[in-house]
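Forgive a beginner's question, but might I ask you for the amino acids of a protein and the tokens describing how it folds?
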Amino acid sequence: MSVTDLQRVESHAVMGTYARNPVEFVRGEGTRLWDEEGNEYLDLLAGISVVQIGHCHPALVKAITEQAGQLMHVGNLYYTAPGIRLAERLSERSLGGKAFLCNSGAEAVECALKLARRRRNGGDFVVLENGFHGRTMGALSATPQETKQAPFAPLVPGFSVVPRQGASALADAVTDNTAAVLLEPIQGESGIHPIDREVLAAARAACDEHGALLIFDEIQCGMGRTGDLWAWQGSGIRPDVMTLAKGLGGGLPIGACITSPEHADVFQLGDHGSTFAGGPVVAAGAHAVLDVVDDEAFLQDVKAKGERLWTALDALGLHTRGRGLMVGFRVDEAPEVARRLLLEHRLVVHATGPDTIRLLPPLTVSEAEIDEAVGRIGAAL
């Protein structure tokens, strides 16, 4: 079907929640995409930090194809090895406790919020301004953005908001009634804003003082995106709980909430669940992604490629922010620039708000592709 045909069907069959660009992608390979007319695009968005090891990576395709031919679903009333092994692998490579597997980032956040309140028998939450944690009711309540929250009020009560870079304000907001502080080590949806180590340290100290949990949302910034396997490793500030999704599945829907050992057994039987969580196919896919990303040489390469990208963008006069291959830069009329890059220069990027372009290329992007992408950005500007 053509884009026009799809738009016609969408108008009467699909709820109007997405502002789509007039392009239909039909094939992907590595950092390249092709539309229905055969035009080739360079992808510097990776499905918003999802296609972590590139489109249709052979190892990922092989893993999910083989698993789909053996067993696709039986549910969590029984054992299947891929999901159980994935939980063990994620826990061992992160906080050392236990994992709950789910289907998305929002679900991972919901799990973390429930775990924090279960542990404290209630309690409130402290979140940062401009944070984004998802669109389900609990995750939305932790997302202090008026345009996203207002249409769905009243929200879940008990969320306090502090400035993004206000260490003292954060410390003052945490009390003995605080269940958890929830934050992104690098805010993604609001425009790629790393949170100062001073703020992260203040959150850690306040949570320790008052017995609250420190929860890091690594849904966008984790899975090697920064050049460390987890973004918190770059700061040295260790959370009690972390949430993952996006790049973990390489294109398949999966999420995870992971604890430290001290909080591994907060949930009791029946406290939480999910029909599809940890299914064999998506878990097999996540193993394949980890096989590529969880490698020190690969992660060092991500850091080097990030530096190459920042340097080239700075040479264009575009002041960058971020870490690794999670990069944002300011430009006027960013949505129009992103649209022009897509339609005229065949470069896939994203505008986060009116003045920021966000770049989240596959971690497997080559140096030549980085140079090519920056050339297209320069031509557009």
Remarks:
- The chain has two domains: 3-56+296-380, 60-293.
